[in-house]
Hints:
The protein contains 6 helices and 6 strands. The protein is of the alpha+beta class. Strands 2-3-1-4-6-5 form a 6-stranded mixed beta sheet, sandwiched between helices. The N and C termini lie far apart (38 Å).
Amino acid sequence: MKKSKIGIYEHFCVLIFAQGIWNEKDRKDIRKPIQERHNKVSDNPYHFFLKLTYRDNMPIYAECKLCCPIYEMFEEIKGKNDGILYQGHHYLILEDDIDDIKEFTNLILSNDKIKKFYILYLDSFKEIKTTVINSMNLQDLKEKLTLKTCLKSEFIKILDDNEFKSRTIYEISKDRY
């Protein structure tokens, strides 16, 4: 089923988590292949890499009350560690985005400076009233989400088996050797 519009409660977030400490060159080296892939011509006019909206400060959206708690949650996950956060109002179309998500997973986890990454997709909270959503704080948001820790190979299998779920924070680590 194709989506035709962006909903204000649809969010797509990725937190890339550092292995050790990054200097500014490391950060640029990590972002560069993502930006190159972002700029690459594609048959899909709204491909996965276009949905990676870089965020280095708390987002200020007048009409969206979830962006700030989501940002706070990822900052809490990151703690004092280095990392890169992408957060925006984007929807995923798994049948179109699955290969790009796999490519992203391989690209990110092949870098020695990256320990793991987190991915969260919120396909709205359709069963919750807008007034409740608008008053959600960080703790309320966390109660509506689940965390799934997996290795890269397990995450790829989740994608292949069409088991990727909205409202699940996937923590994806490198496969162990």
